[in-house]
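Researcher: Please translate sequence to structure tokens.
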Amino acid sequence: MTTANTGAYAHYVYGPNYVLTYASVNNVAANFYDSDSYSVQHFDGAGRPYAAAGYHPGSVGGFKAQVTYYDVMGRVMKQSNPTEFTAIGRPQATMRRLDFTQQNYDWKGRPLVTTHLADGTQKYATYGGCGCAGGEVVTVTDEVGRQRKGYSDALGRQWKSEILNDGASIPLRLASTMRAIK
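Model: Translation complete:
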């Protein structure tokens, strides 16, 4: 795919379980392998991307990569942080391993616990009310213990949000969250 007036282009290579993308905007190369931008995505048997890599300009290694694992329901279960790599696929000396974030879900598919495996910190959510009559309340506690509470109507629209501080409730003043539901 080429833009006629600038010569900028994107070249795609489709494999059985991957897509390579070469793109150039500033420096139009005679060979697409010499492009400004390069990325690759690998897909699992269900068509979900499980590994992605590409150029990382200005870095020591020159490349970045990210890996994603899915549970049996197709939800993201574990995902690495983008990690700097060298051209031969090894992490930089400062990054000996991939750092992952793990996600757990409740029986309704809602996120429960997010764990950063590198340092063990967790962010978690608790759910109250059934949600069917507009009474669902979600309390999210972040990695340092701060809490935020959200109230939703029967259609799942948030109508009120609070930031909790040491057990005291401080209403969050947002026009969209303070409107009355009729």
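Researcher: Any highlights?
Model: The first strand starts at residue 9 and ends at 14.
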